[in-house]
Prior knowledge:
The structure holds two protein chains of two kinds.
Chain A: E1 3-6, E2 10-14, E3 19-21, E4 23-26, E5 31-38, E6 44-50, E7 56-58, E8 64-68, E9 73-78, E10 87-95, E11 102-104, E12 108-113
Parallel strand pairs in A: 2-12
Antiparallel strand pairs in A: 1-4, 3-9, 5-6, 5-10, 7-8, 8-9, 10-11, 10-12
Chain B: E1 4-7, E2 10-13, E3 19-25, E4 31-38, E5 42-49, E6 56-57, E7 64-66, E8 76-78, E9 87-94, E10 105-106, E11 110-114
Parallel strand pairs in B: 2-11
Antiparallel strand pairs in B: 1-3, 3-8, 4-5, 4-9, 5-6, 7-8, 9-10, 9-11
Amino acid sequence: AQSVSQHNHHVILSEAASLELGCNYSYGGTVNLFWYVQYPGQHLQLLLKYFSGDPLVKGIKGFEAEFIKSKFSFNLRKPSVQWSDTAEYFCAVNAHGGYQKVTFGTGTKLQVIP
Amino acid sequence: DGGITQSPKYLFRKEGQNVTLSCEQNLNHDAMYWYRQDPGQGLRLIYYSQIVNDFQKGDIAEGYSVSREKKESFPLTVTSAQKNPTAFYLCASMGGMFSGANVLTFGAGSRLTVL
Lengths: 114, 115
């Protein structure tokens, strides 16, 4: 069975600070990895994804994530956060191939203070 | 505009009553999903369907039922057997073979409160 662990439940940062949110997954095979974001009052939306190839992937709004296979990790980073990044961030995983079940982590609430 | 429509947005139910949440998509996606979102617990998968007339249990299927008679529709029934049904329910779909493949598109959600 696949699972996702997000280490930080609530993060508070000042504007311009750097961000790194941890995500580890458990699954025995090849995976697709995702970060989704839920801004206040908005739908959940995709931030970035990794399917294969370059393990450093870039998403919207200056976010990036690095897949480290040996560590089963897919940490999310942003060099300088803005107040508008205040949101809840979810890491997710599914098995490669077809329309598989997608498992989410418990989420990290990010609060950016102006 | 293509997307997922969930209704109702808010729903109140008395204990012991079944309630059905609607989810309709016009994205021509093959797969559809139901999640439950609770504070501090993230999204937990209830059921998902890869094709019409077929569906699989997710991690927390007990007390819920679904049907998939049409490609665009995937209603969720919260039965009286669900012990803690008050939650925010999210429907999602996935489809396509190219850039959008394997990416979930979410609806706005339905908030169910049991009185």
